[in-house]
Design goal:
By secondary structure, the protein is of the alpha/beta class.
Length: 432
């Protein structure tokens, strides 16, 4: 259940474009007109700016390389994606190509027979460029059900300028140092930590990382298998979060603040120097860039790993994150759908993806274009991490994951406690 990948920055020749003879006789349902054309639908989560333009350009290039194949694109706000996709899958009207994040969420879709096994349709060049680690995030019972596009470990993004204004010389490495930084920022009249708790999962990230530090790797993997929290470290993680929350480190109105939508979101607060820090995954530089006044990368954006927790059983160098990718519906035209997945994994398009989304591409061949300082720091730390755990809501699947996230928000709202988080997970797992 653990996704581990050693990333290497490498250069390689650009792979040539795929060519297809479009036809209606694929293993999946033919959505074409019956005259040899094939049409597919594609859902992604970039609704504005460079990311949206990237997918439009990449789809157009694929269509040019494959006459007779067309792809209808629908961009969906990230926070709406899981719900809309689950509804579409359950109704039998799923998009042919859709965003996937692996872990228990993907396993649920696999077990429901709703996603295509692409194991035998991955180009050798793609397998080599990506490596085994990222593919493991999309592997269920030995078969691969998705194509990785980005490696997204998490940590704390921060404004170097605001840290300097508050007299903070270096990023915190322990929780005691983080507490000191919070105090210094508040004394300087700066909101220490931006949090978009309206969307639940950003708030839950704080619990995830406290658990990563409090629990051993074996304990976390055992919990992933059982779907329950039995070890005392899960309670400890909640107690650490409660202690942090008691220092009132978050922006005013954090419970009603969105994560990524607009200047008033948590990412927007960091983008506009209204808050100093945000705990988030490696997609954050791209989101922040879209929310700065000039819609350019934040010049003073820095990153540091989640601090060490005193007495924790987890390795202090361990990381948590995810692997974003795309899957084909079980009813999609197999030849054309898998060809598109391989197409956008060519070095040219993975480099374009990294630049458009300001993130770390899954293809090791394309990682040489990662130039932003925060992302380079993430890569370096990730390369040396002893292990990387998947986001807990992804790892445990939608039902248990949603219960976990809700339990964390209740604690931060003053309506729950650390024991309530553990109970919420165990009760959800018992209900199946």
């Amino acid at each position: 259940m653990m996704a581990r990948k050693t990333l290497a920055i490498a250069a390689a020749a650009v792979i040539g474009a795929l060519g297809l003879t479009a036809c209606g006789g694929s293993d999946g349902d033919d959505t074409g007109s019956g005259d040899g054309d094939v049409a597919m639908t594609f859902w992604h989560n970039s609704t504005t700016g460079e990311g949206k333009a990237y997918w439009e350009d990449t789809v157009a290039a694929f269509e040019d390389a494959n006459p007779g194949v067309t792809i209808d694109i629908q961009s969906i706000q990230n926070e709406d994606m899981d719900g809309k996709l689950q509804t579409a899958l359950n109704s039998g009207d799923a998009p042919d190509i859709f965003m996937a994040r692996g872990g228990g969420k993907l396993a649920d879709v696999v077990n429901a027979g709703q996603v295509m096994d692409i194991s035998d349709h991955i180009d050798d060049a793609t397998r080599t460029a990506v490596g085994e680690g990222a593919f493991s995030a999309f592997t269920v019972n030995g078969d691969v059900y998705g194509m990785p596009t980005a490696v997204l470990p998490g940590g704390i993004f921060y404004s170097q300028d605001l840290f300097a204004e508050a007299g903070i010389d270096s990023p915190p490495t322990t929780m005691a140092e983080l507490d000191d930084a919070v105090t210094a920022l508040k004394d300087a009249g700066i909101a220490p930590i931006a949090l978009g708790a309206k969307d639940a999962w950003p708030a839950a990230h704080w619990y995830y990382f406290f658990a990563l530090r409090a629990c051993s790797q074996d304990t976390m993997e055992a919990a992933a298998e059982s779907g329950t929290f039995e070890d005392q470290c899960w309670l400890q993680a909640g107690e650490e979060l409660q202690a942090l929350a008691d220092t009132e480190p978050f922006n005013n109105g954090f419970l009603t603040t969105a994560a990524q939508q607009g200047a008033g979101s948590s990412a927007g607060l960091l983008a506009n120097h209204e808050a100093a820090m945000e705990l988030m995954g490696a997609w954050n530089p791209g989101v922040i860039a879209s929310l700065t006044p000039d819609e350019q990368p934040l010049a003073d954006l820095g990153w540091f790993p989640f601090p060490a927790v005193e007495g924790g059983a987890g390795d202090p160098a361990a990381m948590m994150g995810g692997v974003d990718g795309y899957s084909c519906s079980v009813d999609a035209p197999q030849e054309e759908c898998t060809a598109f997945l391989n197409f956008f994994m060519q070095q040219e398009y993975q480099e374009g993806y990294a630049q458009a989304f300001h993130t770390v591409p899954a293809s090791q061949e394309a990682q040489g274009v990662v130039e932003e300082g925060a992302l380079q720091d993430i890569l370096e730390y990730y390369n040396n991490a002893p292990y990387v755990m998947v986001w807990l809501d992804t790892l445990f699947g939608q039902n248990v994951g949603n219960a976990l996230n809700a339990g964390v928000v209740e604690l931060l709202a003053g309506q729950g406690d650390p024991a309530g988080i553990v109970a919420a997970v165990n009760d959800s797992a018992a209900r199946g």
